[in-house]
Design a protein that fits this description.
The chain is α+β, with helices and mostly antiparallel strands and 330 residues long. It is built from 6 helices and 14 strands. β11 and β12 form a beta hairpin.
């Protein structure tokens, strides 16, 4: 009986001791003050190509060179596109002159010219009428031939016809161009101006400029190459904005909010902390093992974050692993 009590007492002591240790450890474990996440500086690259085809005449940058937004990186031979612009400009000028002529209508000199032609044709008709009448009278006395009278009648008909034509020409000259002709000429001018704009844009496309600040990662083509719109010339790493791609586990999702201030450190210099803020939280989970998860598997889900760096420097390189420190309880 005594031995049994001793065993029970020993077991109780062990249980109490274990509980005390657990209670001590729980009391000693401090509350978390920050959430630590891991990620990488996001890789942002762009392949630069011409929108026109031609011979590559010049490249201004080498691999590793820094570029600024709008800086010229390469040029195509512009001679063909310059000729197209010159041709389009000539067509536009010719059509503008035609439109101006139609809108202005007939000049006074043109009206006077056609009126003078009408008067001349009227005089011809009068003269032909006199000849016809005279020969008709002579025919009555058989002093001329019937053929001579027929010739005079034909000359009179021809003179009258010419007078009719000149009178209509004068009427059209006085009225001026038809509105339909003016509208057609204006429409053609608009088409020619659009062709000129397209030609100028193609000429501008012979210059390749940097879309943003960055660093030349690859120089793919060399001067003298024949390139098309689908042929990349450079690959440029963009540096105008630096952000971190990180992931937060599903249990800690409530501790991260858009706009929240965080700090970012790198393995290169752990003492240098970069200030940033949470710019984006993915609305969907990633790396999901299957469609329906148990409570245990749900804790393995993560959500993608985009964290912007406020004042980046040259020590932050794309693809570099970083640590993100998210303050808690603030």
């Amino acid at each position: 009986m005594g031995r049994t009590w001793r065993k029970l007492a020993a077991a109780a002591i062990v249980i109490l001791a274990g509980g005390g240790v657990l209670a001590y450890r729980s009391w000693q474990t401090p509350a978390r003050t920050e959430l630590t996440l891991y990620g990488n500086i996001d890789i942002r690259q762009v392949d630069l190509a011409f929108e026109s085809a031609g011979r590559l005449a010049e490249l201004t940058k080498e691999e590793g060179d820094r570029v600024q937004a709008g800086e010229v990186l390469a040029r195509l031979d512009p001679s063909t596109y310059q000729d197209l612009v010159t041709l389009a400009e000539a067509r536009v000028e010719a059509q503008r002159a035609l439109v101006a002529k139609l809108v202005a209508g007939s000049r006074p000199e043109e009206i006077d010219r056609d009126r003078a032609q009408v008067e001349a044709d009227r005089a011809t008709v009068v003269d032909a009428q006199l000849i016809f009448d005279r020969r008709s009278e002579l025919l009555k006395t058989r002093s001329t031939t019937l053929q001579s009278v027929d010739d005079a009648r034909a000359a009179l008909d021809t003179a009258r016809a010419r007078l009719g034509v000149s009178e209509k020409v004068l009427a059209l000259t006085v009225l001026g161009p038809r509105q339909e002709d003016i509208d057609q000429a204006k429409a053609q001018l608009s088409a020619d101006e659009a062709t000129l704009s397209l030609a100028r844009r193609r000429l501008d496309d012979t210059v390749l400029a940097a879309p943003s600040d960055g660093v030349v990662l690859s120089r793919i083509r060399e001067a003298g190459s024949i390139v098309g719109p689908t042929n990349p010339i450079y690959t440029v790493t963009l540096t105008d904005k630096i952000w971190v791609r990180s992931y937060v586990p599903e249990p800690d999702l409530g501790n991260v909010k858009p706009g929240q201030t965080v700090t970012v450190t790198t393995d290169t210099d752990a003492t240098r902390a970069y200030e940033g803020w949470v710019g984006f939280i993915s609305p969907t989970a990633e790396f999901t093992p299957k469609t329906v998860e148990t409570p245990e598997l749900r804790t393995q889900l993560v959500y993608r974050l985009r964290i912007f760096i406020k004042t980046p420097d040259d020590r932050l390189r794309q693809g570099m692993p970083v640590t993100v420190h998210v303050p808690l309880g603030g």
